[in-house]
Hints:
- This protein has 402 residues and is of the alpha/beta class.
- It is built from 14 helices and 17 strands.
- The protein has 2 domains: 7-55 and 301-400, Alpha-Beta Complex (Aspartate Aminotransferase, domain 1); 58-298, Type I PLP-dependent aspartate aminotransferase-like (Major domain) (Aspartate Aminotransferase, domain 2).
- It has helices at residues 7-12, 45-48, 57-67, 80-92, 104-122, 142-147, 151-154, 172-178, 202-214, 266-269, 285-298, 301-325, 350-360, 382-400; strands at 24-28, 31-34, 39-42, 97-101, 129-133, 164-167, 183-188, 191-192, 198-199, 218-222, 246-249, 260-264, 328-334, 337-342, 362-363, 365-366, 371-374.
- The strands form 4 sheets. It has a 7-stranded mixed beta sheet with strand order 4-12-11-10-7-5-6, with helices on both faces. A 4-stranded mixed beta sheet has the order 1-2-3-15. The chain has a 4-stranded antiparallel beta sheet with strand order 13-14-17-16.
- Strand 8 and strand 9 form a beta hairpin.
Amino acid sequence: MQQVTRAWFDEVMVPTYAPAEFVPVRGLGSRLWDQQGREYIDLAGGIAVNALGHCHPALVHTLVSQGQKLWHVSNWMTNEPVLRLARKLVDATFADRAFFCNSGAEANEAALKLARRYAHETHGPQKDQIIAFSHGFHGRTFFTVSVGGQAAYSDGFGPKPGQITHVPYNDIEALKAVISGRTCAVVMEPMQGEGGVLPADPAFARAVRELCDAHDALLIMDEVQTGMGRTGHLFGYMALGVEPDILTSAKALGSGFPIGAMLTRNAIAAVFKPGVHGTTFGGNPLACAVAETAFDLINQPALLKGVLERETWFREALAGINAQYHCFEQVRGAGLLIGAVLTADYQGKAKAFVDAGIQAGVLVLVAGGNVVRFAPALNLTRKEFEVGMARFAEAVAQVCQG
């Protein structure tokens, strides 16, 4: 058999990514090994996806077991795993109904279409404005990337969907200036992940909820990155003192297996009658069985408490590194979605820390050019953490000492 190499990417793949030079072939817990057998501590978590690490035995068992029973039936039939997963999600949240798809982008696409449809049927076609926040990220479909507040991702594809307004995050006065009776929905992340690991101020979130209520607009919470225990709560909205009307989830929902979900209330869900929206693979039994097992493991008080404990590990370690190298202006975030914001001397150099980390044997992320992001497994062990942060300290030294 011909040996696969990293060079193949440049020969056969559409160049939408610029992947690292090493090729991982095996993972266990928060450790990865490449083709040469070199070990890496994974503090990136597949961008907040591998919430239970690599190859968690319970997930592997479920995948194999369900794979021997039923993979796919499409949605002209239902199946047991999708119904069990839906029941658990609605029982644990504000929601009454669940819709399943394959990714966060699809979950957000469904949420935006649902909000527009609900407004159209309830108030009329004139109620079509969607308000979102600058530097937000909601996916890569044309609708979601247009709602996302980063023009670099949405420009260059022709005319964008209309009636989308962007305002600064955590700026309630800016929202007050544009929201009106024409607004059908406000879309926000409880914490902007791609936008720099920037948490919503609880007072801001409460004011957004009040403005939505005053103008008969729906509040959509994009919890693709913050959901499924990432912040130390099952979903991030639970720490803000507000409930959304629609919530989206993906990433950690399947803890590595592709699945997305949209949750909402009965009255809103009712406008999605048969044929109005759908997906071939969404809610397939294989994905839902794995996600149900992940849900059962994550939605435990001990695990969620452990996420908050691990947050203190990171904050203490980063403070120690910063005391020596003075490269971080602040450390922000919640739970195990943490951003180390670079000082003025290192502006635009977040990727340099990622690259140095790879050389040192630790995987971290960026969140824009000025923030180093950590999104590890929620069950990261103390040993894995200590080895990983020792390697990250080496990477910081490499960057700061030139």
